[in-house]
Structures are given as structure tokens and as C-alpha cells.
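Re-run with default settings, no changes from the original entry. Doing this only to confirm the output is reproducible before filing.
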Amino acid sequence: MSEYWLNAAIKGIIEGVTEFLPVSSTGHLVLVRDLFPLTADPARAAQLDNLFDIVIQLPAILAIVLLYWKRLYGSAMGVLDRAEARNFWISVLAAFLPAAAIGFALKDYLDFLMRTDVVALALIIGGVILLVIERGTGLNRTSRAEEVTPFQAVKIGFFQCLAMIPGTSRSGATIIGGRLTGLSRTAAAEFSFFLALPTMAGAFTLKMAKELPHLNWAADGVILAIGSVSAFLSAWAVVGLFIRFLQRYSLSVFGWYRIVLGVLVLWFGTHAPW
């Protein structure tokens, strides 16, 4: 059993490190499924993997809430008397709605995309787009996430819908959408973090409502708890470092990383050990 606990911890770290970087946490988790199994029962492996991948996103959200507590709390308390605070929460809601509607409509039809070839192609395409975006100019009109307008937010929200394809990256899609609508790198990244709160909480709720009757707490509870703790701790560590990185450097390194990883996955084939 300890082998599966270790695998859960490793996969939790992978989730926490990659969730808020534009490299696709879901894509990485799909690639390592066979390398780090969570159960010896092949009949339950796919179901447990799918459940694990969505459950460990919740503690990653908690890391964002705690890291940005002062800004989020201050903005929430100022909704009634500050226009900027109202605008911020309206923008987050506006960006969330496209994914909420489309994701709910397609929730039962997306599992077939959980394949390494899909992940590889999405990684490469997203990497190329990141490189192109980083060569653009005049993309820094909005320097703070709180200044995003509802119109900008809706466009970012439709970009987020692309992340339903594994390997695309929710963070990557929303950061690209933010950059194309005039946000600076840090504003695009932070708005992506804030948009993750309702988006990932909604995905978690839908998934748990579907899987809860089939969840074996005695067998799976420890696995999910270990993955959640490691996801929280690694997300906590990475988010602050990512923002500091963006204050000095471009996103190009993530574009090249995506392309190299995608090419390697295609090169070694869909039955690669990861």
C-alpha cells in the first residue's frame, strides 16, 4: 500500500507545480498515469485516476485563497462601496460563465480526449502560440488583475474553454487570452489564478456529485488525502515564484518546454512509459 501512497504524493506534487503554470496539469497527470498507479485493481484504475485528478485541484485552489487572502478579502468587503471591487468580481463571474455553460453541456463527452496523443498535440500547439504571443507588442495596457473589464473577462472566459482539451492548460489558455486582450504578464497570470477559484470549484462539485456514490473511502480516502496535501504545499511554493519570475522574464521558456515535451511524447509514441 505504501507504494500507492508515494505515487499519490508524487502526483500531488505534479498537480501543484503545474496547475498554475501554462504547461497543463491535466496533461502531465495523464502522461504519468501508468508510471504512478494509485491502485492494484485494473478495473478501478481509470475511475480512481479521474477522481484523483479533480479532487487534488481543490487544495491547489486553497493555496491561491491563502496566498491572496488580503486582496480577495479586501475586494469582497469593498463590493458595496468601491467601483473597482465590484468590477473585479463581475469580471471574474463574466469570465467563469462560458466555461460553466460549455463545460456542463459537455461534461459527459470529454473523457475520450484523455489520451497521450491529444495531450502531445495540445502541448505543442499551445507552446507555439505562447512563443508568438511573447513576440507581440502593445500587450500591457492593463497592469492589474483588478482592472480587467467585463468585456475583457468574457473573452478570457472563452479562451478558458479551450482547456477542456487535455494538454491545453487552463492557466495557459487564460493567460494567452489575457495577453491578447491587453493584460500584462503578471495581470494575466493573477487573473488566471482568481478565475481558477470558481472554475475549479465548479468542476470539483460536478465530479464529486457524479463519483461520490462510487467512492470507497476506506480504500481511496488516504490516497486522496495524501495527494491533496502534496498538491497544496507544492502549489503554495510555486505560485509566488511564478509571479516573481514573470516580473523579470517572458513566458517563452514555458512555450519551449511545451513544444519539447509534446515532441518527445509523439516521438516515443502513445504507449510511452509515462
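The two ends are 21 Å apart (CA to CA). Confidence is low (pLDDT under 50) at residues 270-274.
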